[in-house]
Write a structure and sequence with these properties.
about 200 residues; globular; two-stranded antiparallel sheet; alpha+beta; about 15% helix; NAC_dom_sf; 7-stranded antiparallel beta sheet; nucleus; NAC transcription factor 25; Metal Binding Protein, Guanine Nucleotide Exchange Factor, Chain A; 4 helices; 9 strands; transcription regulation
Length: about 200
Protein backbone atom coordinates (compact mmCIF):
# COMPACT_ATOMS: atom_id res chain seq x y z
CA UNK A 1 0.00 0.00 0.00
CA UNK A 2 2.98 2.29 0.52
CA UNK A 3 3.59 2.56 -3.25
CA UNK A 4 0.03 3.59 -4.06
CA UNK A 5 -0.50 6.99 -5.63
CA UNK A 6 -3.33 9.37 -4.69
CA UNK A 7 -4.40 7.18 -1.73
CA UNK A 8 -4.28 8.21 1.91
CA UNK A 9 -5.34 5.15 3.89
CA UNK A 10 -4.08 3.71 7.19
CA UNK A 11 -1.29 1.12 7.01
CA UNK A 12 -2.61 -2.33 6.16
CA UNK A 13 -5.55 -1.09 4.12
CA UNK A 14 -5.78 -1.49 0.37
CA UNK A 15 -8.03 0.15 -2.22
CA UNK A 16 -10.01 -2.84 -3.44
CA UNK A 17 -13.58 -1.72 -4.31
CA UNK A 18 -16.24 -3.95 -5.81
CA UNK A 19 -17.91 -3.08 -9.12
CA UNK A 20 -20.94 -1.76 -7.25
CA UNK A 21 -18.77 0.45 -5.03
CA UNK A 22 -16.87 1.86 -8.01
CA UNK A 23 -20.12 2.88 -9.68
CA UNK A 24 -21.94 4.07 -6.53
CA UNK A 25 -19.19 5.78 -4.53
CA UNK A 26 -16.94 7.09 -7.29
CA UNK A 27 -18.43 7.27 -10.79
CA UNK A 28 -21.85 8.44 -9.58
CA UNK A 29 -20.28 11.16 -7.41
CA UNK A 30 -18.04 12.26 -10.28
CA UNK A 31 -20.99 12.51 -12.66
CA UNK A 32 -23.09 14.41 -10.10
CA UNK A 33 -20.29 16.91 -9.34
CA UNK A 34 -20.22 15.78 -5.71
CA UNK A 35 -17.09 15.44 -3.54
CA UNK A 36 -15.56 11.97 -3.72
CA UNK A 37 -14.16 10.00 -0.81
CA UNK A 38 -11.77 12.32 1.10
CA UNK A 39 -8.96 9.75 1.37
CA UNK A 40 -9.19 8.52 -2.24
CA UNK A 41 -8.26 10.72 -5.19
CA UNK A 42 -8.90 9.18 -8.61
CA UNK A 43 -7.38 11.49 -11.24
CA UNK A 44 -8.76 12.51 -14.63
CA UNK A 45 -6.66 11.17 -17.53
CA UNK A 46 -6.96 11.11 -21.29
CA UNK A 47 -6.39 7.48 -22.24
CA UNK A 48 -5.25 8.57 -25.70
CA UNK A 49 -2.24 10.38 -24.21
CA UNK A 50 -0.86 7.40 -22.30
CA UNK A 51 0.08 3.86 -23.19
CA UNK A 52 -0.90 1.46 -20.38
CA UNK A 53 2.68 0.91 -19.20
CA UNK A 54 2.95 4.66 -18.60
CA UNK A 55 0.12 4.85 -16.06
CA UNK A 56 2.32 4.33 -13.01
CA UNK A 57 2.56 7.66 -11.17
CA UNK A 58 -0.29 9.16 -13.18
CA UNK A 59 -3.30 7.00 -12.26
CA UNK A 60 -4.37 5.90 -8.80
CA UNK A 61 -2.48 2.65 -8.23
CA UNK A 62 -3.36 -0.19 -5.90
CA UNK A 63 -1.07 -3.14 -6.28
CA UNK A 64 -1.05 -3.92 -10.00
CA UNK A 65 -4.31 -2.05 -10.69
CA UNK A 66 -4.60 1.49 -12.05
CA UNK A 67 -7.75 3.62 -11.68
CA UNK A 68 -8.67 6.88 -13.43
CA UNK A 69 -11.61 8.84 -14.84
CA UNK A 70 -11.83 9.57 -18.55
CA UNK A 71 -14.26 11.27 -20.90
CA UNK A 72 -16.54 8.97 -22.87
CA UNK A 73 -14.95 8.41 -26.27
CA UNK A 74 -14.85 5.85 -29.03
CA UNK A 75 -11.35 6.95 -30.06
CA UNK A 76 -9.02 5.01 -27.79
CA UNK A 77 -5.89 5.33 -29.92
CA UNK A 78 -2.52 6.03 -28.27
CA UNK A 79 0.87 6.76 -29.78
CA UNK A 80 1.84 3.08 -29.80
CA UNK A 81 -1.48 1.29 -30.22
CA UNK A 82 -5.17 1.27 -29.41
CA UNK A 83 -7.73 -0.21 -27.03
CA UNK A 84 -9.93 -2.83 -28.70
CA UNK A 85 -13.33 -3.48 -27.17
CA UNK A 86 -14.00 -7.15 -26.47
CA UNK A 87 -17.36 -8.80 -26.86
CA UNK A 88 -17.81 -8.90 -23.09
CA UNK A 89 -20.19 -6.70 -21.14
CA UNK A 90 -21.50 -7.06 -17.59
CA UNK A 91 -24.40 -5.27 -15.93
CA UNK A 92 -23.61 -3.70 -12.54
CA UNK A 93 -26.56 -4.27 -10.23
CA UNK A 94 -27.41 -2.59 -6.94
CA UNK A 95 -28.18 -4.60 -3.82
CA UNK A 96 -31.85 -4.18 -4.76
CA UNK A 97 -31.20 -5.80 -8.14
CA UNK A 98 -31.52 -2.64 -10.22
CA UNK A 99 -29.14 -1.83 -13.04
CA UNK A 100 -26.70 0.92 -11.97
CA UNK A 101 -24.19 0.66 -14.77
CA UNK A 102 -22.31 -1.54 -17.20
CA UNK A 103 -18.74 -2.78 -17.35
CA UNK A 104 -17.00 -3.14 -20.69
CA UNK A 105 -13.74 -4.97 -21.24
CA UNK A 106 -10.98 -3.88 -23.63
CA UNK A 107 -7.55 -5.21 -24.57
CA UNK A 108 -4.60 -3.04 -25.61
CA UNK A 109 -3.15 -3.76 -29.05
CA UNK A 110 0.13 -2.42 -30.38
CA UNK A 111 0.21 -1.17 -33.95
CA UNK A 112 -2.62 0.20 -36.05
CA UNK A 113 -6.23 -1.00 -36.07
CA UNK A 114 -7.52 -3.43 -37.07
CA UNK A 115 -4.26 -5.34 -37.51
CA UNK A 116 -2.69 -4.64 -34.13
CA UNK A 117 -1.16 -7.28 -31.87
CA UNK A 118 -2.96 -7.98 -28.60
CA UNK A 119 -0.99 -7.46 -25.41
CA UNK A 120 -1.60 -8.57 -21.83
CA UNK A 121 -2.99 -5.15 -20.85
CA UNK A 122 -6.70 -5.21 -19.97
CA UNK A 123 -9.02 -2.29 -19.21
CA UNK A 124 -12.41 -2.44 -17.53
CA UNK A 125 -14.53 0.59 -18.41
CA UNK A 126 -17.45 1.46 -16.11
CA UNK A 127 -20.46 3.42 -17.44
CA UNK A 128 -23.45 4.77 -15.54
CA UNK A 129 -27.03 3.97 -16.47
CA UNK A 130 -29.39 6.81 -17.30
CA UNK A 131 -32.13 7.82 -14.87
CA UNK A 132 -35.85 7.48 -15.29
CA UNK A 133 -36.10 11.04 -13.93
CA UNK A 134 -34.08 12.72 -16.62
CA UNK A 135 -30.82 12.53 -14.70
CA UNK A 136 -32.16 14.24 -11.57
CA UNK A 137 -31.14 12.49 -8.36
CA UNK A 138 -30.03 13.58 -4.92
CA UNK A 139 -26.45 13.48 -3.71
CA UNK A 140 -25.19 12.69 -0.20
CA UNK A 141 -25.87 16.25 0.96
CA UNK A 142 -29.50 15.98 -0.13
CA UNK A 143 -29.04 18.45 -2.97
CA UNK A 144 -30.53 17.80 -6.38
CA UNK A 145 -27.82 16.52 -8.72
CA UNK A 146 -27.85 16.65 -12.50
CA UNK A 147 -25.82 13.71 -13.73
CA UNK A 148 -23.44 13.77 -16.69
CA UNK A 149 -24.21 10.17 -17.60
CA UNK A 150 -22.75 10.40 -21.08
CA UNK A 151 -19.58 12.30 -20.11
CA UNK A 152 -17.52 10.26 -17.64
CA UNK A 153 -16.34 6.68 -17.37
CA UNK A 154 -14.21 5.07 -14.66
CA UNK A 155 -11.35 2.93 -15.96
CA UNK A 156 -9.44 0.13 -14.23
CA UNK A 157 -6.31 -1.10 -16.02
CA UNK A 158 -3.86 -3.86 -15.29
CA UNK A 159 -1.56 -6.33 -16.98
CA UNK A 160 -3.03 -9.80 -16.82
CA UNK A 161 -0.98 -12.85 -15.93
CA UNK A 162 -1.84 -15.86 -18.02
CA UNK A 163 -5.01 -16.55 -20.00
CA UNK A 164 -7.76 -15.24 -17.73
CA UNK A 165 -9.62 -12.55 -19.72
CA UNK A 166 -12.97 -13.99 -18.64
CA UNK A 167 -11.97 -13.67 -14.97
CA UNK A 168 -10.82 -10.09 -15.55
CA UNK A 169 -14.09 -9.06 -17.19
CA UNK A 170 -16.61 -10.94 -15.10
CA UNK A 171 -14.97 -11.40 -11.71
CA UNK A 172 -14.69 -14.53 -9.61
CA UNK A 173 -16.68 -16.18 -6.89
CA UNK A 174 -13.97 -15.11 -4.42
CA UNK A 175 -14.53 -11.47 -5.36
CA UNK A 176 -18.26 -11.84 -4.72
CA UNK A 177 -17.66 -13.65 -1.42
CA UNK A 178 -15.50 -10.76 -0.18
CA UNK A 179 -18.16 -8.07 -0.67
CA UNK A 180 -18.76 -6.28 2.63
CA UNK A 181 -22.13 -5.11 3.88
CA UNK A 182 -23.07 -1.48 3.31
CA UNK A 183 -23.30 0.87 6.25
CA UNK A 184 -26.66 2.45 7.11
CA UNK A 185 -25.82 5.79 5.39
CA UNK A 186 -24.69 3.86 2.31
CA UNK A 187 -27.92 1.86 2.29
CA UNK A 188 -29.97 5.07 2.47
CA UNK A 189 -27.89 6.64 -0.31
CA UNK A 190 -28.21 3.53 -2.45
CA UNK A 191 -31.95 3.37 -1.77
CA UNK A 192 -32.32 6.92 -3.11
CA UNK A 193 -30.53 5.94 -6.28
CA UNK A 194 -32.49 2.69 -6.59
CA UNK A 195 -35.77 4.60 -6.52
CA UNK A 196 -34.73 6.62 -9.54
CA UNK A 197 -32.59 4.38 -11.71
CA UNK A 198 -33.94 3.23 -15.04
CA UNK A 199 -33.37 -0.48 -15.49
CA UNK A 200 -32.75 -0.54 -19.23
CA UNK A 201 -31.02 2.56 -20.56
CA UNK A 202 -27.26 3.04 -20.37
CA UNK A 203 -24.69 5.30 -21.98
CA UNK A 204 -23.27 4.75 -24.41
Amino acid sequence: MGDDSHVNLPPGFRFCPTDEELVLHFLFLKASHSPCQPNISIPDLDICLHDPWELNGKALSSGSLYYFFDKVTENRVTKNGYWKELDMEKSILSSAGKKMGIKKCLVFCTGEAPDGIETAWIMQEYHLCSSGMGGALFNREGRRAELDYDRWVLCRVHERKGDWAEYVCYGSSDEEDNVTELSSPDEMFLSTIDDNLDETSCFP
